[in-house]
Design brief:
Elements lengths: L32 H22 L3 H24 L5 H28 L4 H24 L7 E3 L3 H17 L8 H15 L4 E3 L12 H16 L1 H26 L8 H6 L1
Antiparallel strand pairs: 1-2
Amino acid sequence: MGPRRNRNRFKVPRPFSSAPGVTPRVPRKGTYLLPNLFTTAALFFGFFGIVQAMNHQYSVAAMAIFIAMVLDSLDGRVARMTNTQSAFGAEYDSLADMVSFGAAPALIVYEWALKGMGKMGWVAAFVYVACAALRLARFNTNSAVIDKAWFQGLPSPAAAALVAGFVWVMDDVKMAGADLNWFAWGITLYAGLTMVSSVPFFSGKDFHFRKSVPFLVLAMIPLAFALASQDPPKVLFGVFVLYGLSGYVVYIVKKLRGQRISVMDIERDNHF
């Protein structure tokens, strides 16, 4: 007789917990807590701004949008610093941005000034919301081929700061929205349409805190905080007005010099 064969040699091992009547255990999927806490907080303040606008507390509503901006700028940085980036976090961040920087500013300015304009008012508010949605969708689909130093179009937080900042400044000086409805209408349309433009806006993503800077820059930081503390509505609104115009200045200068205006990353674009 020949050598006895090992019948268990070619058996496939059973999966864990595969006994009859027992469902195989599937590993549970989770999400990272820390960056999503910042995103949730930004979403909360966006929603809070809507509620305050409905209660005619327009300055509080505008301040809530600025707080949401600060929190939104932190969630991505925290995720990168703690190595907790995830596809879920990116999607959640976009949805929160749509509420805080899309729907919320449009509803705040509509309640404050555009409501009395009838169809013209709500159309301007809707155009802003639609442009914010298009801006976020384009950002998500083009993020891999965009030059990180520039934004393609006005970023939605800056557009929200233009709209909410105007409401904050005018309400702070006791100006009624009904008297400034056409100004609010123009700013709302400008912010919305600039979001979906291809005008380049500086992103600041190439700035790193580990890099050395001149001493004068360090000395300017407390000066900037001191100026902002004197009159936060006017200072913040002024800063974002300058930023909202800066893209067109860069566009015109590059156009006159014959430089490339597109913010697409040529190396990555050719790679794909």
